[in-house]
User: Which sequence fits this backbone?
């Protein structure tokens, strides 16, 4: 854009200014390929090793309805690496995190009953995983809200609460950019920012892009434009020339811009490194073919809502449409059973792959006739999502399918590496809001559609925060959770 205000500092200058203002954080990395033989207890998704002394958290709604919250993560405190912030937590025991994960309303609108953080001081190593209650998975029957990968891919005949596959995690200490907190105008850490503000900006080279050509031509032909010499718009604004002219607000503004530049650089092209597969080869195995059929069936809210309710919501209910749907469902169920009988790890032949894609195409046309979007499912997304459960149960596939292994590797997704990753502690700046100075980022889970199949609104995140005083007192019941999206 021609009138875009340029930054007062370059990316390199911003990096130098902000380098002293970094904090330690602990990133939660999914173990890849999945290894169910590991003795690590920390995980996201799956079934919690919840002791019998702890009840599964529930929520009571104003209309009298009740639902169980969804289990999101458990953190074995003995596995956490040592950083200064970690010392505020107990040395041992387990933290469990629950929330109303499928809500399309801010969690705060339900008050603190919409999330829960539980602490168990004992050893959970010998505790079995507890399955979610039947009334978990609340809101996946909402016709007016797009389904998340967790509810899209679930087995339509399974309990609604079985949403997120288990992903064992290990911890990595990382540095994250922080917004500097200056004690006042005499804080010596202000000096580099002040020097940057009073530095004479260099004269940049004139761009010869199309925008400059158009602007220069307009100046030549516009008779009403005074032809006085002006500072070119591409030159950054001249800063105060005397340190005495600089106020703390100026420094904070510069620091905020530096922080924004650095985070934008970290998140730039966050899909770029994703390994692409040949569409004509998808789906690969029975596992992802079944997930694609599940996605198609879940689009009709099978075993959740009557089909008449679904069709009526689109204004398309009729006996003439109901019969083709029942015929299609019978074919989809029969094909799913045939596939499962082949073995989940079985590589599909071109003929079987074609049969799966034909059923999906029939579904697309049927949805279109019913007034829905009728869009094709994303076969590559389904494949990456299927790899976690497939490799967990059949680890030998990792040796046979190196290309698929690379496609599902979370290390190839940049958004799982930066400050919006799964992590604990450090800077808690979110998407819409930042945490307060006296808050601690207890846990952050980002949108991770492949492994645990998390999706927080539009590629957002969920954060659990707690006041430092409450954390020191071990009052995890005072933690606050919020979902933020783009």
Assistant:
């Amino acid at each position: 854009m021609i009138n875009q205000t340029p930054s007062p500092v370059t990316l390199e200058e911003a990096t130098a200014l902000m380098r002293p203002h970094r904090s330690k954080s602990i990133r939660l990395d999914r173990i890849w390929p999945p290894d169910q033989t590991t003795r690590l207890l920390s995980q996201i998704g799956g079934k919690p090793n919840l002791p019998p002394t702890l009840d599964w958290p529930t929520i009571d709604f104003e209309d009298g309805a009740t639902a169980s919250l969804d289990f999101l993560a458990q953190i074995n405190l003995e596995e956490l690496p040592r950083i200064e912030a970690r010392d505020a937590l107990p040395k041992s025991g387990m933290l469990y995190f629950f929330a109303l994960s499928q809500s399309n309303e801010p969690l705060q609108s339900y008050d603190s009953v919409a999330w829960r953080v539980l602490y168990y001081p004992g050893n959970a190593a010998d505790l079995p995983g507890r399955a979610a209650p039947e009334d978990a998975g609340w809101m996946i029957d909402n016709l007016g809200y797009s389904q998340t990968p967790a509810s899209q891919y679930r087995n339509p005949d399974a309990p609604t609460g079985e949403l997120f596959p288990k992903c064992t995690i290990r911890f990595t200490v990382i540095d994250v950019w922080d917004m500097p907190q200056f004690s006042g105008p005499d804080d010596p850490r202000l000096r580099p920012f002040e020097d940057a503000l009073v530095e004479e900006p260099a004269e940049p080279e004139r761009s010869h892009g199309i925008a400059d050509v158009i602007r220069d031509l307009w100046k030549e032909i516009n008779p009403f434009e005074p032809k006085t010499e002006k500072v070119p718009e591409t030159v950054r604004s001249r800063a105060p020339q005397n340190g005495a002219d600089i106020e703390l607000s100026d420094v904070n503004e510069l620091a905020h811009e530096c922080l924004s530049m650095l985070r934008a650089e970290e998140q730039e092209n966050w899909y770029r490194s994703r390994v692409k597969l040949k569409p004509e080869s998808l789906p690969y195995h029975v596992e992802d073919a079944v997930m694609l059929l599940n996605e198609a069936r879940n689009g009709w809210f099978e075993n959740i809502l009557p089909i008449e309710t679904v069709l009526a919501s689109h204004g398309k209910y009729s006996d003439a449409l109901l019969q083709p749907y029942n015929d299609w469902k019978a074919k989809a169920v029969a094909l799913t059973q045939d596939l499962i009988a082949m073995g989940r790890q079985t590589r599909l032949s071109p003929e079987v792959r074609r049969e799966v894609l034909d059923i999906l195409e029939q579904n697309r046309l049927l949805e279109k006739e019913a007034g829905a979007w009728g869009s094709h499912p994303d076969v590559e997304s389904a494949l990456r999502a299927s790899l976690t459960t497939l490799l967990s149960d059949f680890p030998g596939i990792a040796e046979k399918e190196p290309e698929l292994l690379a496609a599902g590797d979370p290390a190839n997704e940049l958004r799982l590496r930066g400050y919006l990753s799964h992590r604990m502690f450090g800077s808690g700046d979110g998407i819409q809001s930042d945490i307060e100075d006296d808050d601690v980022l207890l846990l952050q889970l980002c949108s991770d559609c492949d492994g645990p199949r998390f999706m927080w609104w539009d590629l957002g995140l969920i954060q659990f925060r707690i006041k430092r005083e409450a954390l020191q007192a071990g009052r995890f019941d005072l933690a606050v959770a919020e979902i933020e999206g783009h």
Remarks:
- The CA atoms of residues 2 and 215 lie 8 Å apart.
- The longest helix spans residues 319-342.
- The radius of gyration is 27 Å.
